[in-house]
Design brief:
With 347 residues, the chain is an all-alpha fold. The chain has 2 domains: 2-144, no CATH class; 155-346, no CATH class. 66% of the residues lie in helices and 1% in strands. It is built from 17 helices and 2 strands. A hairpin with a 4-residue loop joins strand 1 and strand 2 (283-284). Helix 2 (17-41) crosses helix 4 (71-77), helix 3 packs antiparallel against helix 5 (89-104) and helix 12 packs across helix 15 (298-308). The longest helix has 25 residues, at 17-41. The radius of gyration is 23 Å and the shape is globular.
């Protein structure tokens, strides 16, 4: 999205409604996802400076488009009332206040106050409403959004804790492994995210610790396609396919054991499949072994691999080194060509 905002969002005297409507629709969908993410994750979510800049630029562009095209633009792409709630100067100021409040109340969000303050000067020259940032009391914003117990109890967190307790009550390790294999296929990755960051002070920390290692062992030790592993990676793909979810995925890769096990599984996946991959056709060749339900679909493997080798991935160096160690020189070159080929599409 950063690339889209920096490269695609331009307004000239010849720009028409038909030009901006698709861009505005894409931005509005993305902003709603970001807002939901910041609201649900609150101070667990750490935002990058580039993401913050993109959030502000997206608002600037949307405001500017509405000023130029008015209600016809809103009728075309705004079913959730963004423009209706930010059409007057005071409504726009309030919208900017709420955006800044949401940003500052993320993890270590107070450090972003400087960026917001610096950016508002340029923005205010274009749209006066941005001058409201100069008036904000950052310390007061942090105090007014103090954490309460409800901030921590998201539905996904509750589901994770119930799942851990249920598996932990099983009578044998074998039964736990069977239950975990089933859960890896059925449970969304947003639930597993909470497993990998459950506090040491939690009363289920020991069970979480055990399940984390069981998941990582399952991924690391897979020497052939596994329904449980493919299901887990499929759920990761579904998660990161949602707008603005990449940040949370990269954050979870700071868990070194999880990052290492995902790297191991994907390295094995590519070592098995690249010899049969036709780069020109972007598909498996005719002589490739038939794929069944236990294998991760090619497009999903490509996208997750793309995210793990991205610049912002904390395990990028480790993963690349593992790929270069496991893959033959020709397969490594082929994988690089594949990732370069799809990079623009994914960005």
């Amino acid at each position: 999205m950063d690339l889209f905002i920096s490269k695609e969002l331009t307004l000239t005297s010849s720009t028409g409604l038909e030009d901006v409507a698709p861009h505005c629709l894409k931005l509005l969908v993305w902003l709603r996802s970001c807002q939901e993410e910041m609201r649900s994750e609150h101070r667990h979510l750490r935002l990058s400076q580039s993401l913050i800049e993109s959030l502000l630029k997206a608002h600037l562009y949307l405001f500017e488009c509405y000023d130029r095209f008015g209600e016809p633009l809103a009728d075309r792409c705004d079913s959730h009332g963004f423009f209706a709630a930010s059409s007057t100067p005071e409504e726009r100021r309030q919208c900017i206040r709420e955006l800044c409040t949401a940003i500052v109340n993320t993890k270590k969000g107070e450090t972003h106050a400087v960026v917001l303050h610096l950016m508002h000067r340029t923005f205010a020259e274009i749209q006066p409403a941005w001058s409201v940032i100069h008036e904000l009391d950052w310390s007061e914003i942090r105090r007014s959004e103090a954490l309460t117990s409800s901030d921590f109890i998201s539905p996904e967190l509750q589901q994770m804790r119930r799942l851990v307790k249920r598996i932990g009550r099983l009578s044998s390790l074998q039964h736990m492994e069977i239950a975990l294999q089933r859960a890896l296929k059925l449970v969304g990755f947003q639930v597993w995210l909470h497993l990998f960051r459950e506090s040491r002070d939690s009363d289920i920390h020991s069970d979480c610790h055990l399940l984390r290692h069981m998941i990582c062992d399952t991924l690391t030790e897979a020497r052939s396609p596994s329904p449980a592993c493919s299901g887990f990676l499929h759920n990761i793909y579904l998660f990161v396919s949602q707008p603005a979810s990449e940040v949370r995925f990269w954050a979870c890769l700071e868990h070194k054991r999880l990052a290492g096990s995902l790297s191991a599984y994907l390295s094995g996946h590519w070592s098995r499949n690249l010899p049969f991959f036709n780069l020109d056709e972007m598909q498996m060749s005719a002589d490739a072994p038939a794929m069944d339900a236990s294998q991760l679909p090619l497009n999903e493997a490509i996208y997750v691999t793309h995210l793990m080798v991205a610049t912002r991935s904390p395990c990028r160096r480790q993963f690349v080194q593992q790929l270069r160690t496991i893959l033959s020189p020709s397969s490594w070159t082929q994988l690089l060509q594949l990732l370069n080929k799809v990079a623009f599409v994914f960005s």
